[in-house]
């Protein structure tokens, strides 16, 4: 069976080339070093006019690609606080349209990014179907807005009346509370404390049995 | 797509197109085929950015789209063509080849088209003429006709080809309501199109314009508008051209064969081979293992007259070439030698030649002492460059009665080496990015100082001011900058050279796999 014990191999060791008594390298317990020393030095790089010219071409190409509109930068992160310099520094207009004009006949329709209009976010899918529900949504929103306004007009009179009352009550309540609190100079509001003196007074009026 | 290839593609996309495209691209490579919605959802990027990235990738031919699984009425699905991304490593080589064949004009044409993915002929001609005029001395300008002729030559020799037209099945939205709306266009193979290499007739006359720096800001929007109307007037609207990578690869392959022959035999035989290849350039299909049969007479007539090769000598050379086992695989052996030493390379080459050898035979043939041979064989074995084949004498595979032969499997070994190469290039790019990041502050400082110097010089400052500005970079900083540039150049150069090996291995694997 497998694993009967170490040292029992299925083939004689000599055939693989390890003679009897030969020192095997010790088993390693560490991960291999990050930069192991190389036995052979790598082949030296080619130098010459051709290699240097291609090097220059490569670096120029890289630089040029960074300036072309194909290099897409992620949207600038939103600033946490409005800064004074924002007024004077031109923030990059995160224009949703591409800066170059591809031939849209060769690309699928859905990739066309339409410019954002202020109130509408056009969905990028085929524009036929979503138009109708959008129109419905807008109507509904308008209806709701008008309804809200009506409600506001109606309730604004009531509210004005109501607003005054709770304000007065609050003012009175606060004064009461203040008096009570400061009676004994404690943190506890005195009206919450029931010291049981009034307990017996109620029972005269009660016909119900007391348990 | 192996892990190394995906990693390399990601790095290349990031370098040339930015982080957003890299994210979109790598995700699409890993997922295979996706719709726009799924892609946006899984990468968690805003939909507009995803759309922009897909447009960029499609412009450069790295992404293709097709009708989805639900048929033409369903959403469009996109997939990435990985080998186009890996070709980006070879762009300098393409540009250099164009320069060596067709001069500066050809070089600029190929460079412009590579930068922009696809272009119409008229816009290419204009841009290139402007660039050439910019470099010419004051008063001269490049005529469009010269650029047009260079372009035509590139097309005639198939280095440029038309982008395949879309098999458009679109109906306008105001069309009949009965027909469903197939908004999907299906791209086709460029070679299938019969007019692949036909030049459009354009009436383009004029000269390159020299751009004056003061007019830049105003001229651009006007020029952009003008360009739009111009291309439609020029008569080649809708015809886009792209670089024909296959053709360039053929050229590189021919070059490699010729140089291999000249190394092995001599200059004259390489000339003969070059002639043979040139003759069969247009007649042989791309992936054929052998060129068309050419008679000795044809070769004789086609030889350049500068080489006075008499007929009998030609025959002798031909017999020599036929007898010599021209092995393209010599290159695979060389890369084995680099890492393990020249003796290991000898052993490796020996195994390639003799196919199967026993341990003792290896020692004898390679003339290497037993211990060293053992050592090297085991190192090669552990790296999987060499395999062990068992041939039993008895049916029970008893080790003492079995032959153990060492052998080399070329195709898997080539694949293994190719993966190593991809990993190498990935490491080189990452190291270069790391070096740049470490010294970012210093690089920015030096860029700012250069900008200040340039502006000072333009406005005519005194020498004292200039030296003052230059001294803002201290001497040790200058040294650091110098060594940084040296490192980055070395890393870039290495990338170019590893790419040469990649090309050889890829061609070998492709040609071995292709059905003969």
Automatic annotation (TrEMBL), chain A:
Bias type Acidic residues, positions: 169-187, 195-211
Please, which domain of life does this record's source organism belong to?
A: Eukaryota
Q: Spans of biased composition, class Basic and acidic residues? A: 112-123, 133-153
Region annotated Disordered sits at 22-43, 112-211
The listed locations are:
Nucleus
Pfam families associated with the record? RNA_pol_3_Rpc31 (PF11705)
Protein name (Swiss-Prot/TrEMBL): RNA polymerase III subunit GL b
Q: Can you name the source organism?
A: Cyprinus carpio carpio
From TrEMBL, chain B:
One Gene Ontology term from the biological process aspect of the record: DNA-templated transcription
One GO location term (cellular component): RNA polymerase III complex
Domain RNA polymerase III Rpc82 C -terminal, by residue range, is 150-340
Q: Which GO terms describe its molecular function?
A: single-stranded DNA binding
Tell me the ranges covered by the RNA polymerase III subunit RPC82-related helix-turn-helix domain, including all copies: 8-66
- Region annotation Disordered: where it falls in the sequence: 165-233
The places in or outside the cell where this protein is found are: Nucleus
Composition-biased stretches (Basic and acidic residues)? 213-233
Cite the entry's keywords alphabetically: DNA-directed RNA polymerase, Nucleus, Transcription
Give the function comment from the record.
Answer: DNA-dependent RNA polymerase catalyzes the transcription of DNA into RNA using the four ribonucleoside triphosphates as substrates. Specific core component of RNA polymerase III which synthesizes small RNAs, such as 5S rRNA and tRNAs.
Q: How does it assemble?
A: Component of the RNA polymerase III (Pol III) complex consisting of 17 subunits.
The text of the family note is: Belongs to the eukaryotic RPC3/POLR3C RNA polymerase subunit family.
Q: What is this protein called?
A: DNA-directed RNA polymerase III subunit RPC3
Q: Which organism is it from?
A: Cyprinus carpio carpio
């Amino acid at each position: 069976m497998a694993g009967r014990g170490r040292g029992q191999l299925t083939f004689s060791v000599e055939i693989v080339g390890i003679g009897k008594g030969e020192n095997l390298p010790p088993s390693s317990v560490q991960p291999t070093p990050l930069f192991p020393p190389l036995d052979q030095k790598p082949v030296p790089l080619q130098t010459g006019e051709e290699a240097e010219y291609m090097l220059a071409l490569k670096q120029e190409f890289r630089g040029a690609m960074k300036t072309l509109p194909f290099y897409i930068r992620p949207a600038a992160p939103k600033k946490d606080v409005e800064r004074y310099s924002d007024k004077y520094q031109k923030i990059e207009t995160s224009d949703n349209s591409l800066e170059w004009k591809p031939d849209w006949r060769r690309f699928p329709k859905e990739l066309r990014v339409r410019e954002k209009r202020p109130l509408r976010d056009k969905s990028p899918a085929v524009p036929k179907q979503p138009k109708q529900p959008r129109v419905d949504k807008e109507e509904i929103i308008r209806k709701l807005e008008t309804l809200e306004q009506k409600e506001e007009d109606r309730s604004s009179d009531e509210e004005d009346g109501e607003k005054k009352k709770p304000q007065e009550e609050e003012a009175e309540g606060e004064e009461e509370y203040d008096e009570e609190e400061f009676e004994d100079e404690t943190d506890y509001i005195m009206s919450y404390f029931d010291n049981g003196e009034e307990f017996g007074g109620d029972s005269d009026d009660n016909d119900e049995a007391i348990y | 797509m192996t892990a190394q290839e995906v990693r390399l593609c990601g790095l290349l996309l990031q370098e040339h197109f930015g982080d957003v495209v890299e994210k979109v691209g790598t995700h699409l490579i890993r997922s295979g085929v996706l719709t726009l919605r799924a892609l946006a959802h899984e990468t968690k990027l805003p939909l507009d950015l995803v759309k922009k990235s897909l447009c960029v990738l499609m412009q450069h031919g790295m992404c293709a789209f097709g009708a989805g699984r639900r048929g033409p009425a369903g959403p469009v699905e996109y997939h990435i063509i990985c080998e186009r991304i890996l070709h980006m490593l070879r762009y300098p080589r393409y540009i250099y080849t164009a320069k060596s064949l067709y001069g500066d004009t050809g070089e600029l044409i190929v460079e412009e088209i590579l930068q922009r993915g696809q272009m119409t002929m008229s816009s290419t001609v204009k841009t290139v003429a402007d660039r050439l005029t910019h470099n010419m001395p004051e008063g001269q300008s490049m005529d469009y006709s010269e650029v047009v002729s260079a372009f035509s030559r590139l097309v005639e020799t198939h280095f440029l080809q038309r982008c395949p037209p879309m098999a458009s099945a679109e109906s306008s939205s105001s069309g009949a309501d009965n027909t469903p709306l197939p908004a999907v266009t299906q791209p086709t193979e460029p070679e299938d199109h019969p007019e692949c290499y036909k030049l459009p007739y354009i009436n383009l006359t004029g000269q390159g314009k020299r751009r004056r720096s003061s007019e830049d800001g105003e001229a651009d929007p006007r020029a952009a508008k003008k360009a739009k109307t111009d291309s439609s007037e020029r008569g080649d609207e809708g015809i886009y051209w792209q670089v024909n990578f296959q053709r360039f690869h053929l050229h590189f392959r021919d070059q490699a064969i010729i140089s291999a022959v000249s190394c092995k035999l001599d200059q004259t035989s390489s000339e003969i081979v070059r002639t043979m290849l040139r003759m069969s350039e247009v007649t042989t299909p791309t992936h054929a293992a052998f060129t068309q049969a050419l008679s000795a007479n044809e070769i004789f007539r086609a030889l350049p007259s500068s080489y006075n090769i008499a007929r009998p000598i030609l025959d002798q050379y031909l017999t020599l070439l036929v007898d010599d086992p021209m092995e393209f695989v010599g290159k695979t052996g060389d890369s084995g030698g680099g890492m393990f030493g020249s003796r290991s390379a000898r052993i490796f080459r020996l195994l390639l030649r003799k196919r199967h050898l026993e341990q003792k035979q290896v020692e004898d043939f390679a003339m290497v002492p037993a211990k060293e041979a053992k050592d090297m064989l085991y190192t090669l074995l552990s790296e999987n460059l060499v395999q062990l084949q068992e041939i039993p004498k008895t049916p029970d595979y008893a080790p003492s009665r079995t032959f153990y032969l060492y052998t080399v499997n070329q195709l898997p070994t080539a694949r293994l080496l190719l993966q190593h190469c991809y990993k190498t290039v990935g490491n080189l790019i990452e190291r270069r990015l790391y070096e740049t990041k470490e010294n970012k502050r210093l690089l920015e400082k030096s860029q700012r100082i250069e900008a200040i110097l340039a502006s000072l010089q333009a406005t005519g400052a005194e020498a004292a001011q200039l030296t003052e500005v230059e001294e803002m970079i201290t001497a040790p900083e200058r040294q650091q900058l110098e060594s940084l540039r040296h490192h980055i150049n070395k890393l870039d150069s290495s990338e170019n050279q590893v790419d040469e090996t990649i090309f050889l291995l890829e061609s070998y694997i492709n040609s071995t796999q292709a059905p003969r």
